[in-house]
């Protein structure tokens, strides 16, 4: 039993720590799916640009709603691909056979991401498109209007899984700057659709939309790069259990507060939500 999570892993939980270290402490085949948005280490054409703080790289956010920089976004191409492969290997060990994986990425890092996925032993199954609907216009160029979601599975993925038919294109604007908690926060609506690729419990129970059902739903989703906790919140709203891992203390706390707010209206105050620091035993 690991030192990071106290009891049965169900519920909605943000762990403050380095995903690689946290994953090493988790048991085999715990997760029914991995849904995540890693640091892209992109946003610039050269290494000097990549090394800038995230607020400078993702410049559109800085004046409207200054938010703290986030971690892990300045690696060069080789280091990023190597690092991706390392945590993807560990995430695969922690995933059930057939578990799906979905990872956001931009056009620059797309080829490296599909390499890393396959080097780590996942089967690459396709690319989804997130059409953000607007972007900076540049004369004589195509708009960079889309981001992508690379998806795959941990080995064979039967067609009769307990999951619905899902779209391949998601059309949704980014969260408004004024409401954003994280510099690169993903839209909750899109995340609510994407988590549905994760198979529900073997008993076939469909607990979508029921916050109460999270305590009994056996499907646990992993987001190793939780940011403001959008995946964990989407999982909660769709009736899954979920664990998010976040290295930045600021964002781990923000994500925890966000999930607690969602839970407070519908669950008991002693819900099994908790923020846990890597290296410490959760006292909850
Ligand atoms: C692109 S953001 C995720 C944003 C998230 N999807 C949301 O909607 O808020 C990636 C996050 O991964 C975190 N991160 C970077 N390296 C990490 C690591 N080694 N372990 C855990 N989290 C890490 C960053 O601090 C950042 O908040």
Task: Give your account of this protein's structure.
The protein has 284 residues and is of the alpha/beta class. Mean pLDDT is 85; it is low at 203-217 and 267-284. It has a nine-stranded mixed β-sheet, with helices on both faces. α7 links the parallel β7 and β8 (241-246). It has one domain: Vaccinia Virus protein VP39 (Rossmann fold, 3-Layer(aba) Sandwich), CATH 3.40.50.150. The chain is built from eight helices and nine strands. The protein has helices spanning 19-24, 47-50, 54-57, 77-93, 110-119, 188-194, 230-237, 249-264, and strands at residues 12-16, 33-36, 100-105, 123-131, 146-153, 169-171, 220-223, 241-246, 274-277. The chain is 25% helix and 17% strand. Bound molecules: S-adenosylmethionine (SAM). S-adenosylmethionine is lined by residues 18-19, 37-39, 70-72, 182, 184-186, 225, 227-228, 230, 245-248, 251.
